[in-house]
Amino acid sequence: xxxxxxxxxxxxxxxxxxxxxxxxxxxxxxxxxxxxxxxxxxxxxxxxxxxxxxxxxxxxxxxxxxxxxxxxxxxxxxxxxxxxxxxxxxxxxxxxxxxxxxxxxxxxxxxxxxxxxxxxxxxxxxxxxxxxxxxxxxxxxxxxxxxxxxxxxxxxxxxxxxxxxxxxxxxxxxxxxxxxxxxxxxxxxxxxxxxxxxxxxxxxxxxxxxxxxxxxxxxxxxxxxxxxxxxxxxxxxxxxxxxxxxxxxxxxxxxxxxxxxxxxxxxxxxxxxxxxxxxxxxxxxxxxxxxxxxxxxxxxxxxxxxxxxxxxxxxxxxxxxxxxxxxxxxxxxxxxxxxxxxxxxxxxxxxxxxxxxxxxxxxxxxxxxxxxxxxxxxxxxxxxxxxxxxxxxxxxxxxxxxxxxxxxxxxxxxxxxxxxxxxxxxxxxxxxxxxxxxxxxxxxxxxxxxxxxxxxxxx
Length: 459
Description:
The chain is mainly β. Helix content is 2%, strand content 44%. The radius of gyration is 22 Å and the shape is globular.
């Protein structure tokens, strides 16, 4: 396998319609197997090079080197790929192929410790965000639907594709995105979090489609912001006659659904004007920034990405966090607002993840916001209950990049992928969440590390 020294780049994923490449009417022949207590297990690292991905199993994440030679399953993978683990059962690959149908596939560990592909594959057209609820992988995007006004302007919908992990089937669900918040703007969701018997999702107001403009959604003084021509692509695309970007950048909404409400029909909306919307961005990707601690308390992190606006609509709020107590349907006034940007010395949040207990790993911008995920080579730890902010220490002095892929969490530590100027290959580093100290783990013979996790045999 030919390898080249490269910086790690951050994969984007874009807009959603997941259609099964095989029949959705027939369930899988065998039910989802349950791992035996003594089942084989292995750490799995996905590395990519020269247009291919290599799924590599290893006994450790902390010692030695790992290579695909004699050890990895090679699969085709484009530049815009999302890899994630569904618990410890399956590894999923969602592929976006510049508006063309890509292939969605899943992998598992067999009884001999080998990584195998599952039997079903699916065609993915576009998606902006995704999450896992129960036995489902769910993707979502906003797009114009069939409903029109008298001028022929199409109303925007939220389309969800639900992939049944057990039966290997899929279906779609559509709800109206227009005026979701009662302000005539259309919305997008960012992430799907299952906690406390509920589904939590950040609601991102997107501005006014031509349908919303016609309905009177443009606030006085913003008329000149309505576009005359179509511009942008993917999640940043703006139709002619639309207003791109929200007029409510100083507000944050979270929608809460019952965990069995997979029609997304009856949301409870939670609102605050102390945060901007809770969503990380990289091109068309809408990164989840709401996470639950182990006790069920939901922490809502806002990167304040609306600071990228160049007009008067930019948010006045710094990047920060608030909390919704487990079982509550309002923000916790006693907890209040914590200004992460101030604690970090002016570095706003790019991405974040729950690791363990009430510890959250934050990836920060080091030189202002941008749409490409550049200059995000700083990590910090936030402890929710005590509001403690700790910068991660011990990263290499010649650090060139930190992967924005979801970290693997085990025994109070986070495992993330980094690259340096001096090393030929990226490697895994272990971050102790209690101390913030870094120790170096395995080196990976690849250009980029796309995923780190663990699989338990399901045969």
